[in-house]
């Protein structure tokens, strides 16, 4: 295609084009509505927010930062539900997943996690031995993260209405003075960092659920990230945005950041830390590793001049030893994520519609 005008018709401009997505006009809830992708976003934007009206917060992050008291104390508050299947998987269980997930949502606002609630929804007929293993995992994860379990609830549903154990955890943490981290703070020129290998949790759960083997053991990366975040804050760098790329993976998190901050994000595909086992599994099943969930990794957007300093802090921590820079925020194509391929081309990294792997968190 050239810029020559033929028969009075202007040439097509492909800049900014993306593949159209299927229509999602449905009258009932679908699995994809819980996947953290475009269907989840539509459910929030077109159903929940209009229903909530002025009662809803304008900030829609994984945790809310609330100013409390005349002294300006700021608390972070978060809640999440966990329905992973199976309850036990290589490297973890629904119990430690629930604690670590809520701890991490608080940490992504820079908060020091303090208190958690635990609400169990149990299916009638679930073995008490299995429930005991989950409860022990919750307690061990809370002790490891240094948080207190201060309130909770238990409900039981009939055998046809549940699937073993579901968990809801809510958390409260304290945001240190001077910390200002949020999805709208990314700026052109900022560096995009990731704390380690991506796609591990999703592949671990899938391999256990489907009985698949990929030549090497893949274990979930579930872990509490507030310690590594504290080390990053201690560098004094301006941490603009932090996200833990859980449902929808790195793709969903970066698209949400790009849209919230009105910046484009350019990724270097060869720089993405995708383990061989994850790459092989995704190739076999036709999945995109950028859309596979993680539970012990974070994305950081920092000024380019601070990238090396922050990377050094990440790599000095056991949970960030393979941290690397994967891209840059740019003024072009605002709201869009583009990956530069190894062949010199580019592809649009879109927001997932639903979820590639259901019930992974």
TrEMBL record:
Xref: Pfam families: AIRS, AIRS_C
PurM-like N-terminal domain sequence ranges: 62-175
Similarity comment text for this entry: Belongs to the HypE family.
InterPro entries listed in its UniProt record: HypE (IPR011854), PurM-like_C_dom (IPR010918), PurM-like_C_sf (IPR036676), PurM-like_N (IPR016188), PurM-like_N_sf (IPR036921)
Annotated CDD domains: HypE
Protein name listed in UniProt: Hydrogenase expression/formation protein HypE
Record-linked Gene3D superfamilies: PurM-like C-terminal domain, PurM-like, N-terminal domain
Annotated ranges, domain PurM-like C-terminal: 187-333
Classification of source organism: Bacteria, Bacillati, Actinomycetota, Actinomycetes, Kitasatosporales
